[in-house]
Amino acid sequence: MLLSVNGLPNESHFLLWQLGNNTEKRAGTELSGILQVINSGYLVLSVPTSLVRGVFDAMVEPGISLPSAIDGLRACIIVMTPEELNSIGGANNVSERGKAFHYQLGDLVESAAKAWPGVSICWHLRIKSPELTKLRRSYGLPDKLEDQSDFSIVVACRKVGVLAANAKSKVDYIDPSILPDWTKPN
After folding, report:
1. Residues 6+ apart with CB under 8 A from 69
2. What does the pLDDT look like over 126-176, one tens digit per residue?
3. What's the total number of domains in the chain?
4. How much is the pTM?
5. Comparing C-alpha atoms, which of 124, 132, 108 is closest to residue 43?
6. Boundaries of domain holding 65
7. Minimal CA–CA distance to 41: which of 75, 78, 67?
8. Within a domain: residue 10?
9. By Cβ atoms counted within 10 A, which residue in 67, 78, 89, 100 is the most buried?
10. pLDDT in tens, 77-130
């Protein structure tokens, strides 16, 4: 059976074809957070800490730890760096602070830690947010932060040297009498 496309312009037909052949699966659920400036001077979008904790708990990577900030675990999406805020006249010039912005979760990716002393690798969720991109453009900034392809939420990190071989052991001696039966040799 053929569908008639007589009423559609060529461009619309192409877009419909493209949409139908897009195999990338996207989260259909939009999440939201509040835009705010944190103590370290970053403009961020708040994210539920339980989201980061849940992804972290489900990961199977040796030697990882939760990401930490000066004020403990801070789940967020960095929208502007302190330098970018200064370039637009400071945080007080951002009239959108306190407002909700929407985002969608993307893939979980691993990357080398940049400018994070003591951390070698980070895992982060890619974020899709046309609203945050539009906000950055409205202040004359590029769509993305420098050296980043997407907005993201850091969910885990591995500190430098965590998996390195060393002479330390967490256990000096295990008393065999406290072991469960299924662990003992036959």
Report:
1. 38, 40
2. 999 999 999 999 999 999 887 666 899 999 999 888 877 766 665 666 676
3. 1
4. 0.71
5. 132
6. 27-161
7. 78
8. no
9. 67
10. 999 999 999 999 999 999 999 999 999 999 999 998 887 788 889 999 999 999
